[in-house]
């Protein structure tokens, strides 16, 4: 019997789609097509009767990406309550490794670009793109034990939590606390309605939740806190059963449309016609901090977590597998692109070079991780064959 599956629910195809979308955005930005596409991305759309007036590029990063963060938050809640992070014992090694995967890239970035205006970009190399990392793991990791995937998933989720905190705390501007309070009330009402939806299954409640969710997003956007935080809060408060149905329903749209459109718009930057020595320190800092900082940070701190484990218990992952996870962790992409746009929002040239740094650093990490993961997978397959 032939089994059909939607490739947009897998790991390999969405990762490849993201890479193609980013490459296409970068290519078209450096061809005569630039001006026409730039005019479209810069065109403003406003909602009458509200303060919302944003360019199409911002509607993509603040609006469409909020749906992505909604899905991320649903997955976060599941992992924190019933998944791989639901106990201190499970979370210890990935939590310590994730801390290293944040601290060391920040240190590398500040060492290279810590002086002057580029210092504000230090959060950029801290993120790990779950879709890309798991896509590479699925493509090259045949034979790896499931523990490697579980560890990487936990690591990436913790990275996402840190990235969300950075977005909420560092990039809020002129916060209107009253509007923020109204947004929180709307989020709370959304959560209550989701409980009723679980009990009744009413389509009317589902529609009302959609309306309340959009209102919560609009209030959050108007409050001065980045609008994607609304998606995070909505995902965290939603009742588990309706949340899982929503995640399942939205997954193909997020993987097949929202993330590729964001990748295209974020990567739509002109490659500067300058010598390498004239590039911004932010470019070099991100280019190095993503692959090098992540491997060192995750590898070293993950190894430290092994030494701190209770005596007599087996390590979750050994050092070679930690280095493979570190290489995968350097694929920053989605959240790193968003952080680059936020960190250098007022400096277009530096922002574009920072985005190029994200693309370059993520590509280096992708290639390195493909090699390292393939080697580890081959080693495990040999061990399995010898055991048989």
Walk me through the structure.
It comes from Microbacterium esteraromaticum. It is found in: Cell inner membrane; Cell membrane. It is a multi-pass membrane protein. One of its GO terms (cellular component) is plasma membrane. This protein has about 400 residues and is mainly α. The chain has one domain: Up-down Bundle (Na+/H+ antiporter like fold). The protein is about 75% helix and about 0% strand. Strands 1-2 form a two-stranded antiparallel sheet. Strand 1 and strand 2 form a beta hairpin. Helix 1 runs parallel beside helix 10 and helix 3 crosses helix 6. The two termini are about 30 Å apart. The mean pLDDT is about 90.
Q: SSE layout and pairings?
A:
Layout: H1 12-29, H2 34-42, E1 44-46, E2 53-55, H3 56-81, H4 88-113, H5 130-140, H6 146-170, H7 177-200, H8 203-223, H9 228-237, H10 240-266, H11 281-308, H12 319-329, H13 333-343, H14 348-387
Antiparallel strand pairs: 1-2
Helix pairs in contact: 1-5, 1-10, 3-6, 3-9, 3-10, 4-6, 4-11, 5-6, 5-14, 6-12, 7-8, 7-9, 8-9, 10-13, 11-12, 11-14, 12-14, 13-14
